[in-house]
Amino acid sequence: MWRIGELAEEARRAAERPGMDGAEVMAHLGIGPGRHVGEALAHLLVLKRDEGDLERSELEARLDAWWAARS
User: Fold this and answer.
1) Which of 24, 31, 58, 68 fits a disulfide with 20 by CB distance 3.0 to 4.6 angstroms?
2) Residue 60 · residue 44 · CB < 8 Å
3) To the nearest whole percent, how much of the chain has pLDDT over 90?
4) Whose CA is closest to 63, among 5, 32, 24?
């Protein structure tokens, strides 16, 4: 029975979305496609898991801070 719960949790996590898609991340940061877009999406997903849904302006501010810290 515990395996069903594990599978349900895996499915739930796989269906999570970070609040912005790749095209929105690229447009906001003014960048093209590449692994950095996936890294940005992963960062946003961690934020969502840790803090829940954030307002769009807060999400963009956090993305900007993350991007600046990478430079």
Assistant:
1) 24
2) no
3) 72
4) 24
